[in-house]
């Protein structure tokens, strides 16, 4: 068992999943980013007979990188932003604040309504206390 595991908090969380959610996924807004360049599809691993090295050859391309960040629901995407280069913490913050929880065109609603739970992975650029404050301030 994990040293930080708390069985009581775990049971409370499981109860909240049963009691606080509709059950069809309409509460969730999932956010993720991806990027693409000319090398995205290049192989990084290969197989070879025992005792031999796999030879991986590819044309070296130093090209432009494009990144996309999208917010999606069970109905489809609600907001997206594409940039040249990679998303950093500030770009990600701006996207969430300006296009997902914007006060002018809000795509989210207060909990426990539809589109009220923002789901992110553990990417380093998501670790931003100002982002947490902005999302909570938007309701």
UniProtKB/TrEMBL annotation:
- One GO molecular-function entry: nucleic acid binding
Checking Pfam families in the record gives: DDE_3
Highest taxon of the lineage: Eukaryota
The chain positions of domain Tc1-like transposase DDE read 28-137
Under the heading InterPro entries, the entry gives: RNaseH_sf (IPR036397), Tc1-like_DDE_dom (IPR038717)
For this protein, the record's PANTHER family field holds: TRANSPOSASE
**What's the protein called, per UniProt?**
Tc1-like transposase DDE domain-containing protein
Species for this entry: Suillus luteus UH-Slu-Lm8-n1
Q: What is the lineage of its organism?
A: Eukaryota, Fungi, Dikarya, Basidiomycota, Agaricomycotina
């Amino acid at each position: 068992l994990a040293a930080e595991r708390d069985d009581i908090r775990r049971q409370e969380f499981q109860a909240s999943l049963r009691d606080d959610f509709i059950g069809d996924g309409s509460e969730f807004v999932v956010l993720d980013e991806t990027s693409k360049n000319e090398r995205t599809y290049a192989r990084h691993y290969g197989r070879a007979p025992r005792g031999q090295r796999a030879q991986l050859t590819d044309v070296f391309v130093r090209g432009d990188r494009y990144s996309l960040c999208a917010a999606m629901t069970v109905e489809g995407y609600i907001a997206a932003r594409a940039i040249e280069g990679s998303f950093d913490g500030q770009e990600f913050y701006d996207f969430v604040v300006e296009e997902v929880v914007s006060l002018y065109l809000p795509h989210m609603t207060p909990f426990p309504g539809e589109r009220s739970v923002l789901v992110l992975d553990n990417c380093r650029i998501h670790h931003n206390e100002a982002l947490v404050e902005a999302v909570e301030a938007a309701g």
